[in-house]
Amino acid sequence: MKLAFDKLGGILPAVIQDARSGEILMIGFMNAEAFAATRATGDVTFFSRSRNKLWRKGESSGHTLRVREIRVDCDDDALLVRVDPKGPGVCHEGYRSCFFRRIEPDGSAAIVAERAFDPNAVYGKGSAQ
Amino acid sequence: MKLAFDKLGGILPAVIQDARSGEILMIGFMNAEAFAATRATGDVTFFSRSRNKLWRKGESSGHTLRVREIRVDCDDDALLVRVDPKGPGVCHEGYRSCFFRRIEPDGSAAIVAERAFDPNAVYGKGSAQ
Lengths: 129, 129
Known about the structure:
The structure is a homodimer of 129-residue chains. Chain A is mainly beta. Chain A has helices spanning 32-41, 119-122; strands spanning 12-18, 24-30, 45-48, 53-56, 65-72, 79-85, 101-103, 109-111.
């Protein structure tokens, strides 16, 4: 099979789901190299758009994401990666999931999750997540 | 709150999750107008990149997606929409989820779900999904 990296300038969205709980942890992007690295190592590896390089999730925090299964959608332009998270959470703000805020009827964003860890203790300033 | 539509040329990825089962149904993209329409109508509305216009999911099939909750991620550039699906599935190939194929160790894609409906009976040729 061939993934449609061309639709978005060389990257694809990859949604990361906790294989056990079904919780959505985050969305990242993969280019062909990140996808190959994810498959070869079994650790979720993204392409960082801000740093313009491969980013093995958890490379500094130790909170890596072990791949259990990769699914591809019907038009080959999106991935669903089901993982075992190695660590209490994926979010640099200290939450289990990056989706810890709900958009309210008035347009504000309300925090609807509990902090899972202290982000200051885990992430050094300016380090990768 | 302000969504970061600028990071990807005016669109954001939106992952659609069945609010009851937790299953990931699809990933689509929203621009500001699609996001506003989704919030105003309560029906998931995407921006179709191929047709370059708003696309209310299910507008021809009747398989609309009622919004239960919208979450936003930590850097305001991705959405998680938890829905009640009105219909047996979202995929134009007749599956409940567009992620009905698993990528195997040899790189092939194996179908790992059962068809939920007959796509020929639901989708007219060339119609929107």
